[in-house]
Amino acid sequence: MKTLFLNQSQIEHFDEFGFLPPVRVLATDEAISLRAEVEDFEARHPELAGQLDFKANLILPAVDRLSRDNRLLNLMEDLLGPNLLHWNSTFRIKESNTGQHAAWHQDTAYIKLKPFLAICWLALSSATRNSGCLRVIPGSHKWALLSHQEGHDSKSILSRAQFIDEAFNDSAALDIELAPGEVTVINHGIIHSSGLNQSDDRRIGLLMDYLPTHAIKEGPRDTAILVRGKDNFGHFDLENGPVSQDPLENIEHQKRSLEAITQTLYADSEHKPKGLS
Asked: Which among 14, 96, 133, 181 would be 20 to 30 A from 21, CA to CA?
């Protein structure tokens, strides 16, 4: 089979184990430049940093451009097919030596979508075991959904501080270390977590969620951007990217989409997203 970015062995690995081993999509200097833009936004508008938790692609034009970059879309087409929707971009940032972490969980606990959501995890800083890189249990995307509980751990970087509350075998757990500009892609059913950032730098990851246009999501109707091919199904309301090159002028545009996605991610939850607080 002809591929655009990945080789057949990489595609088979993703299908079998639920994750893609690290591949380089951006040059190191591109990743550093994007990091600088994100941190400039945080420094200029600290009160708006929470807006980057969801739909960051509707705030920062650089994130929107990246989500449509042909290098990334070629990779995603190899995994999902030629007709692609981009559902969400979110930053997962762990500050140095703060105790922040993510417990073992499956995103299928709260995102009911078939066939699956492909989450592209891009490193904007070094993601190592010492800095709390992504950790997965290979093949666990084929397991049944385990029991989850919503938590109240202020150190959790997850939307609900959720965690798996039943016993399971994590002996095969694997760290996915990434250099700036490298990505991994995970099936949203895989069991994953991340540990403490004990390095001297922030651990900055940009997560971009993709799905084929034929995907069906349970629950309230949601929005997504058509980034490649055609949408002959209409399962999502199609939205546009940022309305301005000025992030501040994009806030209201983003909020309309936030209301849709948070109905999915926070259904029946006492937690509330920062972007709507």
From this structure: 96
